[in-house]
Fold each of these.
Amino acid sequence: MIKASVHISHLVVFFNMKFKDLFSLLIVILSLNSFAVNANEGDNDISFYTGTFDVIDKEGDDKTTLFGLEHKNPNLFRNTFLGKFSPVSGGFMTGNSSIYLYTGVEAQYGLGPLKILPSFTPGYYEKGGGKDLGSVLEFKSEIKIGFDIFENSKLGYSYSHISNNDWGEKNPGSDNQHFTYSKNF
């Protein structure tokens, strides 16, 4: 019962964050790729995700919720001998007001309706009231498993690691997991 109330208190703190911050994050994410191509219908793959920041928190003081948005343009996918690649941009905010904004590349490998999506995205990290990762420049490596539920919708699970590659004052890193809903607009 105590564990459930702690998790609920994290959600309450998360949803009581300033809506101005969430709105600003949304505007930044959506504008990152807005100049890439013409805005035809179906050109925007928007993902909404929520989960846990710092899943493997050895001290037990930095684990919190996260909420994020991600944008991909299906027209920018390129088939190569290594697979299908696309630029990806997004960001998330944690329950402790940490923010990570990123842009990078994502690969896509399909096995029928199942998709395996590894990605690498450098980005800007602001610790807010959360974990100090040692640098504002951080790198996120992620593996996502998605499942096509409808023609233009996917559900997925992601596991990611954020680190500064020992380029910062310190490098504690953060392992994160989240569930994703993606829709093609």
Amino acid sequence: MNDDKDRFLLDRRYTNAFENLDDATIANLASALEGDLRDGFARLIGLPEGAFDDLGQLGALVRDGISKRRAAHDAGVILAEPCTQWCIEKLGDASEDPTLEQLHEVLPEAIEKFGLDCARLMAIQYSRSLKGFRQLVATDERFAVAGTAPSVGVLEKDEAAQAAKREARKARKAAEQAAKAKQQANKRR
């Protein structure tokens, strides 16, 4: 699979993840960032000066910035970074391509330390590239790729109205053909 398609799919997954998070959760994830990570995140999504001072508004500001700047993918990666770094340290050499079993060993503690939502964002990041994470997303309901299903309504057709439209269409075509035939007959004279 090419990089553009992967990026598109990951962006959709992050967008869906953010749609399913409430503002308080987003604010908690953002406020957990420290130092350069926090500063970079603020610049990425365009947070105003002092945005981290008001947790009540932070979630809405982050959501608005992600939406306006179409930065769901990058924001998701940064918000999950503390959890990702911790898991890399815990997994050691296995962090390059952890198995599902290795993930099951480390994730309970990661969830306890960073929260399920942060661990989900981390899983999204690697769900296209690492086999263990692909299996995790496919087999563990907590990490399944959630989405907002488009609402599909059943189209109800009024058969009588449809029949009337068909008859009107036939009449119009017949009139057009008659006019065309008359025009051609007049040209021959």
